[in-house]
Amino acid sequence: GLPESIVAAACARSGQRVLHVDSRNYYGGNWASFSFSGLLSWIKENQQKTDHGDECEDWKKLILEDEEAIPLSRKDKTIQHVEDFCFGDQDSAEGVEEAGALPKLPVLGACGAKEVSPGSEKECPAVESPCPEPESREPEQATGTEPAGATEGNGAGTTSGSESSPGESTLELGQTEAAPSETPAQEPKKITYSQIVREGRRFNIDLVSKLLFSRGLLIDLLIKSNVSRYAEFKNATRILAFRAGKVEQVPCSRADVFNSRQLTMVEKRMLMKFLTFCLDYEQHPEEYQDHQSSTFAQFLQTRKLTPSLQHFILHSIAMVSETESRTLEGLQATKKFLQCLGRYGNTPFLFPLYGQGEIPQCFCRLCAVFGGIYCLRHPVRCLVVDKASGRCKAIVDHFGQRISANYFIVEDSYLSETTCTNVCYRQISRAVLITDQSVLNTDPEQQVSILTVPPLELGKPAVCVIELCSSTMTCMKDTYLVHLTCPSTQTAREDLEPVVQKLFSVNTEKETENEELEKPRVLWAVYFNMRDSSGVERSSYSGLPPNVYVCSGPDSALGNDCAVKQAETIFKEMFPAEEFCPPPPNPEDIIYDEDETEPEESGLSNSAETKPEPSAEESSGGGAAAVTKE
User: Fold this and answer.
1) Mainly resides where (predicted)?
2) Confidence class for position 164, pLDDT limits 50, 70, 90
3) Burial of 418 from C-beta contacts in 10 A (0-12 / 13-18 / 19+)
4) What's the pLDDT tens digit per position in 284-315?
5) Residue 213 lies in a domain
6) Secondary structure of 300-357 as H, E, C letters
7) Which of 14, 107, 357, 406 has the fewest CB atoms within 10 Å of its CB?
8) Residue 270, in any domain of the structure
């Protein structure tokens, strides 16, 4: 996951020896990205929920009399209520190689749900132009010290953007040229389920949907540590709002406000005056101190703003809760939004090409470059605790190997129910859709959009919608990848399906033909609930040794600040005198000391000025890390 990958990179960079292991066979944990066929395998695995019993307990013989073991969980319980659907009719899907064995999917159409055999294909609605020949990005192999998918050249076919302000640190923005549209006279061709499966490698589908604030903690860390060179980014090009049953674009920069045709001249002046106040609201406490106990929505009503401006500010700029967020929280969120404008584009947000799952891999790569060892498919049975000191001294893996270390960083999902007895978790509702067109068609078509849908019912949360186009390298041509996220009140499908039906056509009998023609059509969808362990205090875990640190999974916030803060806090607790993720040395500054070539140090050195050598033992990386001082 992202927090433990950042910790691993920081530890390796400061001269520690790091072993980073994961029981899964892919990078990122619940922050991962999958191809379409990979996501189908992930869905099948989480729907089956097979409980792996402890077939062999030989590892218990490795525990000495003056030690005790803290068993770790053998089963990941962070994902629940996984439901996937393909919408449309059936057609033949024989000879599709990318999918392998296709799982049975219920098809939702005018006739309701029914089971489809693995050998059949679902025909999806028409799109404007034919599907291109597969030119999929080949998956990188996890060899040497470079994590799969993190190799340089991820942005093949892209050019670096030049939108950053003068004097800013460089952060490469990938800009992929949009393909020319077909002539209107051409017969529209339907995209079928087999085409989606066949071009499955063009999809990079994130389990967690987030954007990077251009002046957020993660961007600052990527630039400072020079990890940004391992990835490319694309601007989120527009902010959308859902009001009165329609999707419309929100003006957020000064130029957008004055060019907007949605706002009257009076509204433009009102909006600019309020946004100027928000940028330095701390200097004018008299303006808001009487409203600190009020909600931000109530505060906006006192500012003589029109209903449309109140809606734009609350849901599309501040993006805070209408009923729960207080005035100060709303002002802070608005200021953060405005401060991020203009650094890399007209919106505050960036999105990493090939998906959010690239970011953990980039930090894993930095760790590997500085000698970290990575192993996937490597479960850990238990933590070994010294009874006298109460500190954890080793782990025992599924091979029966005992591995000693000074510090242990564990993701929350690895802890057993016994350890988490007093922990109360929140849940995140997630949906991922593949659609045939954008929620708001404009020219050009290649848009990355963020839309906040206000609560449709009292007591329901607002839903964050992120729509990605094919130039983000997350979906095939002529399709869009749509992520929906909100804090859970019920199952993911119960929380998010009403929003899906408002924005998209899913071929239900309730919709009229005209409504279906206007809305984008859903070709495929998956719903699932994900555990949110971000708010759990360390004291809630029972019996954890002081040198064992717990990283949380993804939270429901739009940005990544929580993960970065958590990683830095853990690192500072372990090594208070060390700098957190300092820049790597320039090649010309590296001092080679030929006298220090001790084989027992496996090519690693205490000196930060020695050339970092890749570890030949590295294979892959993910969830739990063990750290020792060299």
Assistant:
1) cytoplasm
2) very low
3) exposed
4) 999 888 898 999 999 999 998 999 999 999 99
5) no
6) HHCCCCCHHHHHHHHHHHCCCCCCCCEHHHHHHHHHHHHHHCCCCCCCCEEEECCCCC
7) 406
8) yes
Looking up residue 274, the CATH number of its domain turns out to be 1.10.405.10
Query: In terms of residue numbers, what domain contains 272?
Result: 253-340
- CA-CA distances (angstroms) from residue 43 to 55, 193, 379, 492, 526? 25, 17, 21, 14, 9
Residue 235 φ/ψ, nearest 5 degrees: -65, 140
| Range 271-274, long-range pairs (CB < 8 A, 24+ positions) | 271/305, 271/309, 271/312, 271/313, 274/303, 274/305, 274/309, 274/313
Q: What tokens does 132 get?
A: 């291109």
Is residue 456 within 8 A of residue 499, CB to CB? The reply is yes
Contact 277, 304 (CB under 8 A): no
Q: What are phi and psi of 141, to 5 degrees?
A: -90, 140
Whether omega before 444 lies within 30 degrees of 0, making that bond cis, reads yes
Chain position carrying tokens 């239900």? 508
**Residue 462 tokens, joined:** 């607002």
Contact of 87 with 506, CB cutoff 8 Å: yes
Write the DSSP symbol of residue 491: -
Tens-digit pLDDT profile for residues 235-279: 999 999 998 889 998 887 778 888 888 888 998 899 999 999 999
Q: Work out whether strand 373-375 and strand 16-21 pair parallel, antiparallel, or are unpaired.
A: parallel
> Would 268 be classed as within a structural domain?
yes
| Residue 455 covered by a domain | no
Quote the pTM value.
0.80
Q: How many separate domains does the chain show? A: 1
Q: How far apart are CA 571 and CA 581, in angstroms?
A: 10
CA distances for 268 relative to 238, 262, 310, 314, 478, angstroms: 18, 10, 13, 16, 36
Token pair of 249, please?
């674009």
Are 403 and 21 within 8 A, CB to CB? no
CA atoms of 499 and 571, how far apart (whole Å): 40
